[in-house]
């Protein structure tokens, strides 16, 4: 939605709202209430228009990783005075503030709306006139009742998911996933990890070493799979929407004394910063792009810990996924391209609604002796592109990946066979 217009029974059509967007909706500009004016210049020099700018007509949304609108702020501040004209400080002009239960119901005593802001859970529009504030949410294809955590009509893709309730919301996976317009979703996973058991000995002259993630390339996502950076982006192909649903460090980084292997410090986990571009749709092609920056949770030497943010050389990767939707013909084409500093190892895979995962691309980390050189280099130093043709069923779920056998004949490898090709690759130049 870009704008809202209203036409009274008797009168002209008026613009009520203009929606502001970045890679998602940022806020809303309400109807300009102050009267504009104009006057005619003498000697036929034309007309001058006077437009009044009024603070408070523009609202900005503060949302969480699921798109839930938690707070809206007006574009003005409120003065708090001591006496007379002396201003002590300023307060934000809060227009609404809400907390939600996992399936979207507003928490009693934790909801406030000073105006008529209509958007809330997952950033969707509330139908407050039907069942009360926040109790009915419009997802486009279906209506969601946040009190019972169910849609009010059958899932249009229900025949593909016999194990699910036909009225389920986000398959019950409410912490990381949302139902985008009530239609199908893909999840793009991008992770960077240190494949060794320890690393950093060379950079510290053999005095200290740091815990690695001690693994190779994998599409597994259980608690035993560690990563310095782990992100997930939920994508709706039909409606061209993308939402960051996970950004975390999986596992802690530990500093050891090299010889004795004594634990010196367990660093807190650091949340990666993710810049998600607005999806670009051209015909049946959808492009999703994200830049991922993982801050170092700990400095190379203990003496630098207080200023670690100043000497930090972050992990940086930018991944671009282009999906050409040919599901009606039984496949999708995926082009995946990454650029980055090259350290540490990097993997990207795509997941369908059944939980089937398929590798899109990997980057082999340089050896331990080249860590400092890589981290201090350009975030555009390394790059590679991968092209996949993925066979799908009628609902876009993955059946396999097109390839060729030893004789050059076209075949379809099942997802497990395809993934084993990547899992068999060493994740670092100095590992076998």
Please characterize this protein's 3D structure.
The strands form six sheets. Strands 21, 22, 23, 24, 25, 28, 29 and 30 form an eight-stranded antiparallel beta sheet that branches. The protein is 5% helix and 45% strand. A hairpin with a 5-residue loop joins strand 26 and strand 27. The longest helix is centred in the last third of the chain and has 9 residues. With 432 residues, it is mainly β.
Q: Average the pLDDT over all residues and give the rounded result.
A: 88
- Please tell me how large the radius of gyration is: 26 Å
What's the helix count?
A: 4
Proportion of strand residues: 35-45%
In angstroms, what separates the terminal alpha carbons? 53 Å
What is the strand tally?
30
Largest sheet: 8 strands, antiparallel
Short description:
The protein is 5% helix and 45% strand.
Task: Describe the structure using short key phrases.
eight-stranded antiparallel β-sheet, 5% helix, 432 residues, seven-stranded antiparallel β-sheet, mainly beta, 2 domains
Blueprint (SSEs and pairs):
Blueprint: E1 3-6, E2 14-21, E3 25-30, E4 37-40, E5 47-50, E6 58-63, E7 69-81, E8 87-100, E9 106-113, E10 125-126, H1 128-131, E11 136-138, E12 143-145, E13 150-151, E14 186-193, E15 198-199, E16 208-211, E17 227-236, E18 241-250, E19 254-257, E20 263-266, E21 273-276, E22 280-282, E23 285-294, H2 308-311, E24 315-326, E25 331-340, E26 345-351, E27 357-363, H3 371-375, E28 382-392, E29 398-404, E30 410-413, H4 415-423
